[in-house]
């Protein structure tokens, strides 16, 4: 039964998340433009861009890159399907890591020096945020008494009440996961960075289109993690969760536009320190109190 | 019981025959056939006893007791002769202490203690028997081709010592069967010491200075562990008046305070054998041996004997805090620090060695936690680690013989140069660290069991250790994944026996990952239930099936979904006109040719051995010393 629900959820997520993610990306570009004193493109610009990418000629440096990217997209959808059908949070975390790994392998497979630098940095980014993500799942388990995301709907108080420190930790690494500056080391949408496209240097046309769609899906999933903190038995809490998600997204855009890229040493140390303090202290508190 | 006896005796007979056979052809036939026989016998044993709660055989023999004592004397004699020849005082002294201890124990104390049930097997023994028979047998077959190449690389006048090599491999298998099937702890101890000395001889096989030095490091550490085992035997014989392992565990669960010292001593023995910090150096040093030896030591024998003993002790750990704390902390710290150090290594075998030690640390920590869920996780860690690690060692061994290096940096373009081998290697690597493959499912269960017991320190260790694990595997995987042009395929000269073993391991790996829920139901759960009386599966079966479906998808993509794209091929972008995509040469600003090079990240100043190893050595030594003192003193104080 769970398997069937997960499959259906994956398909639905694969259809809905790109739409939501595309709109979010459009909002990002408009808000960023306003912050920089520009008018910015229409909200649907990301959609136009991707549609154009799929109309371009299929050009590649090898025959496997697109297979890897397709796998990354597929598993991002599976992770989303697991999460939004109320499945096991750890399962969701592990599957999205698998998706990241396929994307990293796609970049490595091209053997472009720029893509390799990007892939190595992305690997480092995964290492930087992974402890906090695992501690997020553990914190959720201690707060909700289960790993099943769906069970938050039966809670009397939202989990933010008990694991707000974990929430802060998640906020910190969310910037890495969304690949926003100052942690956009592996690839960036800011033209002024020392390496801009990094991982996607050799990806073009439809392959790049798939990468964009994967990012939309990922963004929706990660913002879902944020929303999960504010949902409980009260149906109206969904509205609260959406409001918080939008506020957090705005915060991320603001950070993206106001901080310069940092070096990997700072990213690794700060992310691990945050995980240790925010995650560790909160979990220890829940376990021993 | 006939089958148990066969599994123990048959490899010994084969070993004796192999010692006499000098021809390549005859050896190939004997090793191949015996490996198949041992593998099939193990599978038959497992298949006919699926789901068994444990079968115990009334079997005792004074003659066998004397044989065991005789074997101990011979082993000590071997170690002593080496110690004298290479002037290693410490090894000689430890061997003499052990000999004296064993003889006094046998003739003064153990003689009075009767163990009516000599042999047994339960579902855990069956799991181990499967690993020893099928994976160990597969490695023996692989060694045929590998050792022929190895001998060809030796100087022409070098003595062909392969008969000894293969004989030792089979003795090893036999000793492992003794360990997993013996209920008489004296017999188990004999098997334990045989594995120690076998690996000593295998590590020193090449007789270079480095090999001899590393072999002695191994023997010193493991003899110390053996003395720990002896201490436990003394406590059992004198205080508890039993040398039956099953009875010992039952007594321990009923009255943990009574067995405190014995459990700490046994756990110490297990920790040395499983190469936990501060004893990690012996396993790292063992790499100097030919690759099949490493594969055997890391996957199906030796270190697995250590964790087997620890997992067996898990029910007592659950009841008794001192040994439990010691085993948990030693295992946890080892897992974390060895995962860190693996990042800084570029030698493929060294990365594998650190990863082995780290994973054994995780199994050790699970044994220390001791809950049904933790034992469930530990059993799967043992199984998947055995298969994946043997696959990886065999891949690295073959790659080394064909590309002339075991450095990961030299494995550039392996996907082109050795397409089949690279895929096997990628499969093995993915199984080691990424969901939905078996190893990560087991880690997932481990995490759940740690959280349920409120082991906050272990949860944090697992979180950071897993992140480091991702780093060092992913960058290796990336190195393999690179594709450029059509370089020469160098894998056509790989021996058939090597392909056969590689294929066996890869097939086993995929099969085990896909059928994980079934293995849980028929092999792992029965053991957990027989020991604890309750089910202990931290992950729901539905989620296990989702994982196995994902495995199937990934495997299909890896082996069938690559290539065949219609996209137009272009050269990579090099910020200049490309002059050859394969070697990444491009036209530079002065119209000359520049070559772009890229190396993996090793971050030696953050994760280097010099910086991290001493931390683990100091911490774990203190923890173990404290545990011994508390366990020895506590009964007198209380």
What share of residues are in beta strands of chain A? under 5%
Overall, the morphology of chain A is: globular
Task: Report the strand count of chain A.
Answer: 1
Structural class of chain B: mainly alpha
Specify the overall morphology of chain B.
globular
The residue fraction in helices of chain A comes out at: over 70%
Mean model confidence by pLDDT of chain A: 92
Biggest sheet record of chain A = none
Helix content of chain B: over 70%
Q: How many H/I helices of chain A?
A: 9
Query: Taking Cα atoms only, what radius of gyration of chain A do you get, to the nearest Å?
Result: 19 Å
Strand ordering within the main sheet of chain B: 1-2
The arrangement of helices and strands of chain B along the chain is HHEHHEHHHHHHHHHHHHHHHHHHHEEEHH
Tally of extended strands of chain B? 5
Distance between the termini of chain A: 37 Å
How many helices of chain B? The count is 25
- Helix- and strand-based class of chain A? mainly alpha
Explain what this protein looks like in three dimensions.
The complex is a heterodimer of chains A (289) and B (638). Chain A is mainly α and 289 residues long. Chain A has one domain. In chain A, 70% of the residues lie in helices and 1% in strands. Chain B is an all-alpha fold. Chain B folds into two domains: 2-563 and 602-637, no CATH class; 572-601, no CATH class. In chain B, the strands form two sheets. A two-stranded antiparallel ribbon of chain B has the order 1-2. In chain B, strands 4-5 form a two-stranded antiparallel ribbon. In chain B, helix 5 (123-153) packs antiparallel against helix 6 (162-181), helix 14 packs parallel to helix 20 and helix 16 (372-403) packs across helix 22 (516-532). Chain B starts with a helix and ends with a helix. The mean pLDDT of chain B is 89. Strand 1 (59-60) of chain A pairs parallel with strand 3 (568-569) of chain B.
């Amino acid at each position: 039964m769970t398997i069937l629900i997960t499959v259906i959820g994956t398909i639905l997520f694969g259809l809905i998340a790109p739409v939501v993610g595309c709109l979010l990306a459009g909002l990002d570009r408009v808000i960023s433009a306003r912050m920089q004193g520009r008018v910015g493109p229409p909200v649907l610009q990301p959609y136009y861009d991707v549609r154009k990418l799929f109309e371009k000629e299929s050009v590649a440096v090898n025959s496997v890159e697109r297979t890897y990217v397709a796998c990354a997209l597929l598993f991002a959808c599976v992770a989303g399907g697991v999460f939004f059908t109320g499945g096991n949070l750890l399962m969701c975390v592990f599957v999205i890591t698998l998706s990241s790994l396929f994307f990293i392998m796609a970049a490595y497979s091209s053997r472009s020096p720029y893509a390799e630098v990007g892939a190595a940095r992305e690997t480092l980014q995964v290492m930087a945020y992974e402890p906090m993500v695992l501690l997020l799942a553990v914190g959720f388990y201690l707060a909700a008494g289960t790993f099943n995301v769906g069970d938050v709907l039966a809670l009397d108080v939202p989990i933010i009440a008990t694991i707000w420190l974990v929430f802060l930790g998640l906020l910190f690494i969310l910037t890495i996961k969304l690949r926003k500056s100052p942690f956009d080391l592996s690839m960036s949408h800011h033209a002024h960075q020392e390496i801009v496209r990094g991982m996607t240097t050799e990806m073009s046309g439809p392959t790049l289109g798939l990468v964009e769609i994967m990012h939309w899906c990922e963004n929706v999933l990660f913002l879902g993690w944020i929303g999960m903190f504010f949902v409980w038995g009260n149906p109206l809490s969904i509205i609260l969760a959406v409001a918080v998600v939008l506020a957090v997204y705005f915060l991320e855009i603001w950070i993206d536009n106001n901080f310069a890229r940092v070096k990997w040493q700072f990213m690794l140390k700060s992310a691990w320190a945050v995980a240790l303090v925010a995650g560790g202290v909160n979990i220890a508190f829940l376990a021993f109190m | 019981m006939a089958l148990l006896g066969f599994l123990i005796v048959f490899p010994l007979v084969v070993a004796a025959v192999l010692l006499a056979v000098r021809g390549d052809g005859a050896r190939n036939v004997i090793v191949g056939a015996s490996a198949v026989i041992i593998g099939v016998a193990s599978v038959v044993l497992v298949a006919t006893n699926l789901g068994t709660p444990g079968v115990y055989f009334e079997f005792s023999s004074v003659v066998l007791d004397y044989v065991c004592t005789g074997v101990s004397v011979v082993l000590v004699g071997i170690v002593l002769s080496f110690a004298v020849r290479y002037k290693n005082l410490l090894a000689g002294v430890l061997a003499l202490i052990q000999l004296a201890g064993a003889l006094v124990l046998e003739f003064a104390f153990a003689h009075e203690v009767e163990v009516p049930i000599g042999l047994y097997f339960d579902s855990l023994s069956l799991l181990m028997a499967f690993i020893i028979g099928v994976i160990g047998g597969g490695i023996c077959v692989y060694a045929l081709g590998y050792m022929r190449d190895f001998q060809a690389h030796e100087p022409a006048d070098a003595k062909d010592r392969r008969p000894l090599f293969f004989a030792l491999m089979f003795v090893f298998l036999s000793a492992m069967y003794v360990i997993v099937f013996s209920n008489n702890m004296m017999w188990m101890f004999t098997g334990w010491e045989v594995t120690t000395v076998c690996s000593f001889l295998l590590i020193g096989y090449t007789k270079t200075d480095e090999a001899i030095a590393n072999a002695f490091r191994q023997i010193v550490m493991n003899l110390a562990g053996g003395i720990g085992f002896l201490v436990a035997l003394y406590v059992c014989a004198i205080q508890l008046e039993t040398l039956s392992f099953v009875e010992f565990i039952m007594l321990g669960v009923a009255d943990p305070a009574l067995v405190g010292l014995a459990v700490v001593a046994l756990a110490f023995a297990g920790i040395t054998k499983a190469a936990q910090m501060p004893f990690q150096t012996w396993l790292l040093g063992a790499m100097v041996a030919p690759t099949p030896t490493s594969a055997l030591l890391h996957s199906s024998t030796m270190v697995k004997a250590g964790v087997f003993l620890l997992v067996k002790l898990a029910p007592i750990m659950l009841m008794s805090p001192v040994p439990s704390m010691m085993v948990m902390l030693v295992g946890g710290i080892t897992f974390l620090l060895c995962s860190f150090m693996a990042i800084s290594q570029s030698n493929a075998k060294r990365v594998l060695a650190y990863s082995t030690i780290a994973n054994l640390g995780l199994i050790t920590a699970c044994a220390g936690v001791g809950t049904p869920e933790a034992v469930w996780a530990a059993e799967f860690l043992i199984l998947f680690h055995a298969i994946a690690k043997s696959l990886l060692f065999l891949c690295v061994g073959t790659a080394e013989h064909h590309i002339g290096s075991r450095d990961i940096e030299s494995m550039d373009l392996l996907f082109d140069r050795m397409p089949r081998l690279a895929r096997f290697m990628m499969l093995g690597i993915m199984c080691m660290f990424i969901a939905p493959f078996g190893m990560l499912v087991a880690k997932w269960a481990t995490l759940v069991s740690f959280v349920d017991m409120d082991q906050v320190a272990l949860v944090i260790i697992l979180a950071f250790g897993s992140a480091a694990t991702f780093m060092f595997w992913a960058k290796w995987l990336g190195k393999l994944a690179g594709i450029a042009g059509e370089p020469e395929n160098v894998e056509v000269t790989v021996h058939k026996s090597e392909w056969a073993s590689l294929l066996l391991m890869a097939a086993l790996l995929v099969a085990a990952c896909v059928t994980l829920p079934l293995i849980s139901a028929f092999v792992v759960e029965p053991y957990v239930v027989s020991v604890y009386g309750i089910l202990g599966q931290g992950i729901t079966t539905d989620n296990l099936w989702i994982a196995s479906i994902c495995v199937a998808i990934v495997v299909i993509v890896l082996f069938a979904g690559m290539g065949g794209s219609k996209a137009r091929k272009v050269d990579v972008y090099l910020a200049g006109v490309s002059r050859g995509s394969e070697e990444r040469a491009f036209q530079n600003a002065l119209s000359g040719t520049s070559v772009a090079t890229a190396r993996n990240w090793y971050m030696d100043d953050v994760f280097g051995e010099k910086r991290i190893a001493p931390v683990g050595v100091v911490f774990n030594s203190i923890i173990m010393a404290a545990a011994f003192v508390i366990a020895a003193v506590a009964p007198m104080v209380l």
